[in-house]
């Protein structure tokens, strides 16, 4: 079994309280991933023993994660993380997911989608209406989009918000991760001073 988890690790984070908080957040995430990897190693060993005993083919287990900064300003940072796992012998395909976090660079506090709007419910309604008008999502009902829409599945760029749906949620797995941009200008009347 192999694992490679890469999280943001800021040099001299202890000299800046906000970055220190952000580094602590990712250190905890990394520790949780490693604990899970330890458990998974036991499953991999068991799977290996069973496949060898039955003459089957063992597929090595593996997990990887990485990250990128999608936006960094004086006030905030937006981090996009990727996750890949091939950890079940005989599975139809590996798992690919995306996660993201936004942080206030004055405090290190994690920002939620609601943090960016003066009226979060009105913003969520407009976001869903806008997403339902996107070509790739036009065949899906508002109920389906609403039930699969996760407030934490977004990140920021210089131009706007990017909302995403994990594979095999609103579209078949083969469609992959679906991402949709909404410019800040389309939500301008609802934006909080955070942006």
Automatic annotation (TrEMBL):
Q: Where is the DUF3298 domain?
A: 150-185
> What InterPro entries is this protein classified in?
DUF3298 (IPR021729), PdaC/RsiV-like_sf (IPR037126)
Q: What is this protein called?
A: DUF3298 domain-containing protein
Query: What is the organism of origin for this protein?
Result: Intestinimonas butyriciproducens
Upper lineage: Bacteria, Bacillati, Bacillota, Clostridia, Eubacteriales
């Amino acid at each position: 079994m192999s694992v490679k988890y890469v999280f943001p690790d800021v040099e001299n984070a202890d000299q800046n309280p906000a970055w220190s908080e952000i580094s602590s957040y990712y250190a905890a995430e990394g520790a949780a991933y490693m604990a899970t990897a330890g458990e998974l190693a036991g499953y991999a060993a068991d799977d290996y023993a069973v496949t060898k005993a039955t003459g089957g083919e063992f597929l090595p287990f593996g997990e990887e994660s990485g990250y990128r900064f999608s936006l960094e300003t004086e006030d905030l940072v937006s981090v996009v993380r990727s996750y890949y796992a091939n950890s079940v012998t005989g599975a139809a395909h590996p798992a690919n997911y995306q996660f993201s976090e936004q942080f206030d660079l004055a405090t290190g506090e994690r920002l939620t989608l609601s943090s960016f709007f003066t009226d979060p419910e009105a913003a969520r309604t407009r976001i869903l209406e806008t997403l339902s008008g996107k070509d790739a999502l036009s065949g899906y009902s508002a109920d389906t989009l609403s039930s699969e829409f996760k407030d934490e599945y977004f990140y920021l760029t210089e131009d706007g918000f990017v909302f995403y749906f994990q594979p095999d949620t609103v579209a078949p797995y083969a469609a992959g991760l679906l991402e949709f941009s909404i410019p800040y200008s389309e939500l301008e009347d609802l934006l909080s001073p955070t942006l």
